[in-house]
Amino acid sequence: MEMSEDDNSSEEYPTEIHDYLAAFEKSLGSVDEMLKTMMSVSRSELLQKLDPLEQAKLDLVSVYTLNSMFWVYLATQGINPKEHPVKQELERIRTYMNKVKEITDKKKASRLDKGAASRFVKNALWEPNAENEHSPKTPAKGKKRKKD
Fold first, then answer.
1. Coil, strand, or helix at residue 7?
2. CA 124 → CA 34, 110, 129, 130, 134, distances in Å?
3. Both 36 and 77 in a single domain?
4. What average pLDDT does this structure show over 9-26?
5. Other C-beta atoms lying within 10 Å of the C-beta of residue 93
């Protein structure tokens, strides 16, 4: 998949896009490596190791990736993917991805420790007792401060 100097001279394209094409080629190589890694493990074997939420995430990412690749394929064939049903499919998948994200966020949200909260409130409130009744820190009731 690598571009050699011979390819560059025989293919006519604007030199300004060479860096973009090289980056695209590198990205394709990364996608190829990820797909090989995913395909090296059977799906059932992989799913056994994941909890249901992680399974849903894997399925959604997989189907989104496949549809995205189909989007790119359509574009390379001169077909406008925005006018193709694949657009609605990608939007539908994104909706489910957002639902899974909401569930994940709710799981991560901090839970209220009722015991700790009641101890905090109890200790934060002032309770009069024998030691504190005549304490100079608390102003005596009924007395007013003199104004200058």
1. helix
2. 55, 22, 15, 18, 20
3. no
4. 82
5. 19
Q: Is the dihedral of CA 68, 70, 75, 76 positive or negative?
A: positive
**Number of domains into which the chain is organized:** 2
Rounded distance, CA 67 to CA 73, Å?
10
Is residue 121, in this structure, part of any structural domain at all?
Answer: no
- C-alpha 143, offset from chain centre: 60
Domain that residue 32 falls in = 18-49
C-alpha distance across the termini of the chain, in Å: 89
Query: Could you tell me the pTM of the whole model?
Result: 0.58
Asked if residue 131 is part of any domain, the answer here is: no
pLDDT digits (tens, 9 = 90+) for 88-144: 999 999 999 999 999 998 888 767 677 877 887 877 777 676 555 555 555 555 555
Q: How far is the C-alpha of 65 from the C-alpha of 58, rounded, in Å?
A: 10
Give phi and psi for 118, each to the nearest 5: -70, -35
Whether residues 42 and 56 fall in one domain: no
Residue 98 burial (10 A CB sphere; 0-12, 13-18, 19+): exposed
Question: Rounded to the nearest 5°, which phi and psi values hold at 133?
Answer: -60, -40
